[in-house]
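[job 4471] stage=fold_predict status=RUNNING
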Amino acid sequence: MKQIKQYVHKKILVLGLAKSGVSAASLLHKLGAFVTVNDYKPLSENPEAQGLLEQGIKVICGDHPIELLDEGFELIVKNPGIPYRNPMISGAIERGIPVITEVELAYQISEAPFIGITGTNGKTTTTTLVFEMLEAGKKSPLIAGNIGTVASGVAQKATDNQTIVIELSSFQLMGIDTFKPKISILTNIYDAHLDYHGTREEYEQAKANIARNQTKEDYFIYNADQEKTAAIALETKASLVPFSIEKQLANGAYVKDGFIYFKGEEIMAVEDIALPGSHNLENILAAVAAAKLSSVDNKAIRQVLTIFTGVKHRLQFVESINGRSFFNDSKATNILAASKALSAFEAPVILLAGGLDRGNGFAEIVPYLTNVKALITFGETSGKLQEAGRAAGIKIIEGVDNVEKAVPVAYGLSAPGDVILLSPACASWDQYKTFEVRGDIFINAVHKLK
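[job 4471] inference complete, writing structure tokens
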């Protein structure tokens, strides 16, 4: 860990706790800052805040008093989930107080270089693949961000002969200043999180921030099949490394005659890859590019791709019961992600879908329901999804109370050879705290069938 001096005796406000806030507050305290933590949860219900109080850090809990901003803070480190329209954040910006996220702190103290991965879909799978490939290639990687340990916690332990592989959200990337990964990946960009960002333009710019500070000594890996990501590539000074499943690329990763190539070098046959889905092939190409740029040999890359079957909750194979294959894709919190999951299967699918109603319809998913023999819906969007199912001509449509009840109903409607797929196309928050909780409930319900 770099012993930086820039925060010594600086007044810093950490806004919002959770894991990133706790890590940021503790780190800044170690670096000699005068830290104040402000969290909305009352102190009596807030063990994280209590722990920081025991370290000698000033803690204010129960609300976000706007008058705090008049106490002379020189920096605010905010929880990524707090939107910029929050009065505390907008008030800080009006006062000229810089606002960053914890990822920026991690970069400032890290002795290890970063491989940063972002995009609307595929971040977690790509991040995991890159980490596994570097691990197989004995490159001593560490994993951080949304998928693993908080970045500033990992960075404190990282050495200069390691690499931090980090999944980055648009929320995190809006709060960077000097953050500069050695290798960055942009998987794709679609409409998402507009309730947070307000406009598509702001969302796209947040994603583009991953390459904002890169130079020609760094690498930007991007989806050459998508107009928007290709346009963002033109804005960075990094060395460009495209990937494509549609065309051959002399300077990137691509598919030709059933084989994966990187810069003209054959890596492996597509048919030997364990992970299903054309969308995952895009993730694989991005990961292969990052691995090759990190001097991982082809044997290590093949070793990973022949056994890696998916990340938990991301088109995760769960179990085969009496010829029925169960897949958990609880991470599919939007229509696009669910559509890609459906496209991964040729077998008849029984789809379990539903969740938080964000006001959108589901007409866009209708073309992807052609191989769905039965639709089981739940949650706030149950009726809307049933309407989409009828538009697709699905003969069997049933509504149930929740995911747990959906599993035995789906099994009862299935036959050997069918795929039973949880791919909700919606966020989980109407019924479950997180998509992980929703996915775990699905997994447990599947195991109960045995």
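[job 4471] summary: The chain has a mean pLDDT of 94.
[job 4471] exit 0
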